[in-house]
Structure formats: C-alpha cells, structure tokens
Design a protein that fits this description.
This protein folds into three domains: 11-115, Butyryl-Coa Dehydrogenase, subunit A, domain 1 (Orthogonal Bundle), CATH 1.10.540; 120-233, Beta Barrel (Butyryl-CoA Dehydrogenase, subunit A, domain 2), CATH 2.40.110.10; 237-381, Butyryl-CoA Dehydrogenase, subunit A, domain 3 (Up-down Bundle), CATH 1.20.140.10. It has helices at 11-21, 26-35, 40-48, 67-79, 89-100, 103-115, 192-195, 235-271, 283-311, 317-342, 353-361, 370-381; strands spanning 120-124, 140-144, 147-158, 165-171, 185-191, 200-204, 213-224, 228-229, 273-274, 277-278. The protein starts with 10 loop residues before the first helix and ends in a 7-residue tail after the last helix. The chain has twelve helices and ten strands. The strands form three sheets. Strands 1-4-5-8 form a four-stranded mixed beta sheet. Strands 2-3-7-6 form a four-stranded antiparallel beta sheet, with no helix packed on it. It is α+β, with helices and mostly antiparallel strands.
Length: 388
C-alpha cells in the first residue's frame, strides 16, 4: 500500500511566521520575562509584516484571511517559543468590530489598525464580583444626549497599557427591566488615550505570568454615542462571537505550546545520557511524551473544526469550547511531561521550560475555566439540567 503524504495547505503561512519568529529567539522572551516587559519590537514586527491584520478585509488594508489562518499564526508564535498573549487580542476583538460595527466605524478604524497606527488589543468584560457570570455585570452606561456616561469596574483587562482602543461591555438597561438577563447589554469602542485620567483609571495586577493585566475603574467616563457598536442592548449576542473566536485562538496557542513542549522533551530525551544510555530509551520517559503528541493531534482537529465553522458563520459555540478544553488540557500535560523529562534542568530559566510551563498553565483558568466548559457541554450539548 502506498504511503499517503498529507500536504499542509497553510505551510506558506507557517514558514513565514516561523521565519519572523526566528529573529526573536528564546533569549528575547526570557529577558522580557525577567524584566516583566512587553515585546514591543516583536509586536511591531508582526504588525509590519501584516500578520496582526490577518482578519481585516483587503479593502481596509488587511489580508482578508479567516480564523483558520489567524489561528495558525497564533499557533506558530507559541510553537516558536513566544507568547501570543501579548497580541492575540487584536485578532479576536477584530471580529466584534468587523461583524457588528457600522460602515463608518470600520472605515474610520480598520485601515489604521491594519497599518499599525492604532492598536485594538484590549477587551473589558469581566468584573471582580461577577467573574464568568457576565449577564450580572454591574458596569453601567447611561445615555445622556450624544454621549454615554459609564461607571463601574473591570478586572483582568489585558494589554490596555499597550492599546489605543478597547472593546467595553456595559449594561445600558437595568437587569430588572429586561425579560432576559442577556438583554440590555451593549458594546462600546473606547479610545483609551482620550479616556485615561478623564473618568478611566488603570491599576496593574502583578501575576505569575508576564502577561500585562489590570483592573480598570470607570467614574462618569463619557463615550460618544457614535462609539456604540451595533444596536443598544444586543451586546451580549455580539460578544459571544468574539468569545468563540477567542477560545478557538487560545486553543491554537495551546497547541503551539504543546508542540513546543513535545519538541523540547523529545530533543532532550534523545540527548541526555544517564546510565550510559539516552533517557528517551526508557518507556517511562517515552510514554508521557507520546501521549501528549497524540492528544495534541486530537485537539488540533477540533481547533480546525471550530475555526472553519466560525469562518462559515455557522454556530460554533460547542466546538470552540471543546477545542479550548482539549488544547488547554493537552498543552498542560505536555508541559508536565517536558518538565519531568528535563528533571532539575527544567527549573532552570536558561532552558525556557519553566517560563512556558507558567504561561500555558493560565489556559486551564482563562479565558474560561475548564469546569465551565464541562458545564456548557453538559447543558447545551447533552441536554442535562443547568448546574449553576
């Protein structure tokens, strides 16, 4: 029987992103991690090469690609040893503006985002007292003439200090005045440069990963009414589009991390000699690495399924959630296998394993915890009673 060779239709994208990432080796990200710095040069290079404008239509200066291609870009960044968390917000936030923004809004912002003149890296949804219970958020936006006045608080807001624009979800109709809790929420595009110190303040949150994140406080912040995206009160439905894209992209990043761990573990297991033999000859070392590879391949298939459905504008909530669950689980198990393979050297910063180990652990919790994904599948896919 002849051997079948499956060609990757996206190999050119992979090769190009890998070539760019080669200019930013492990030492670059290792130094940034030590300094708690932001990869400005790396993000600028991605922008200039057009990768962060992948989802923007060509008419607005972008590449006009789909979520499939965007996910490959994110995967390759992580597989090369980088961290897409520094810039992935521009990918999934773009969908909210593209799918629900007005023609005037898209014409005003998209060309500047594509060129790098503006960054749309941040999204403000989560609140300290509501967490994942989004429909109970307390941040209010009250219409006053040609403006909305916003008051409230958001938490775990990433990259806002490196972003010009931010997507904001706020309640425009009190919860006790709507039939369904998901109604009465609206999305706004906030100009961070104009808002800072004029009703919006930022407080950084130190954390275990070099992932710049913050609390954001709003006190009578005025936003032009023209910055409302879509219809007032329909924001929750709009934000779900962005969340499905986010979960699919995060899945791709986890897959990239997982392959990085498997590659590093395999290389070290072949090179490390103990008791006069490579440790990779031992099944106790082989099996966890092989199992991780198998699970990553399975997660990879679900990632593509979710992305293809999203690009076809088909319902993809279940697939996006399952892709994120499988990929986050696989990458975390690969991280543990890689660290265990390296033994004590896995804890040394020069090997980069401990850095990537910390980075990939985040995705068991964010942007949605694995337990909530299980609850979603139980209720919405299997028809079991709502558990919360």
């Amino acid at each position: 029987m002849p051997t079948i060779h499956a060609e990757d239709p996206h190999q050119e994208i992979r090769d190009a992103v890998r070539a760019l990432c080669a200019d930013f080796p492990d030492a670059y990200f290792r130094t940034l991690d030590e300094q708690r710095g932001y990869p400005e040069a790396f993000v600028d290079a991605l922008t200039k090469a057009g990768w962060l404008a992948a989802l923007i239509p060509a008419d607005y200066g972008g590449s006009g690609l789909g979520l499939v291609e965007a996910s490959i870009i994110m995967e390759e960044i992580n597989r090369s040893g980088g961290n897409s968390g520094a810039c992935h917000g521009q990918m999934y936030n773009m969908g909210t503006l593209l799918r629900h923004g007005s023609a005037e809004q898209k014409q005003r912002y998209l060309p500047k985002i594509a060129s790098g003149e503006l960054r749309l890296q941040s999204m403000a949804v989560t609140e300290p007292t509501t967490g994942s219970d989004t429909t109970k958020l307390k941040t209010r936006a009250v219409r006053k003439g040609d403006r909305y006045v916003v008051s409230g608080q958001k938490v775990w807001i990433s990259r806002i200090q490196h972003s010009d624009l931010m997507i904001l979800l706020a309640r425009t109709t009190p919860a006790d005045e709507v039939k369904k809790r998901s109604e009465g929420l609206s999305i706004f595009l906030v100009d961070v440069r104009e808002a800072l110190g004029k009703g919006m303040d930022i407080r950084p949150i130190p954390n275990m990963v070099n992932h710049e994140t913050n609390e954001v406080f709003f006190e009578e912040l005025e936003i032009p009414a023209e910055n409302l995206i879509g219809e007032e009160g329909k924001g929750f439905r709009y934000i779900l589009d962005g969340l499905n894209a986010e979960r699919t992209l995060i899945a791709a990043e986890c897959i990239g991390d997982g392959y990085w761990f498997v590659d590093r573990a395999t290389r070290y297991a072949n090179e490390r000699i103990v008791f006069d033999r490579p440790i990779g000859r031992n099944q106790g070392v082989q099996f966890p690495i092989a199992e991780s590879h198998i699970e990553l391949k399975a997660a990879d298939l679900m990632r593509f399924r979710a992305a293809e459905l999203f690009d076809a504008r088909q319902p993809c909530g279940a697939e996006a959630n399952m892709a994120k669950y499988l990929a986050a689980k696989a990458s975390w198990e690969a991280a543990n296998a890689c660290l265990q393979t390296h033994g004590g050297f896995g804890f040394a910063t020069e090997y980069d394993v401990e850095r990537k180990f910390r980075e990939t652990r985040l995705y068991q919790v964010a942007p949605i915890s694995s337990n909530l994904i299980l609850s979603y599948v139980a209720e919405h896919v299997l028809g079991l009673p709502k558990s919360y």
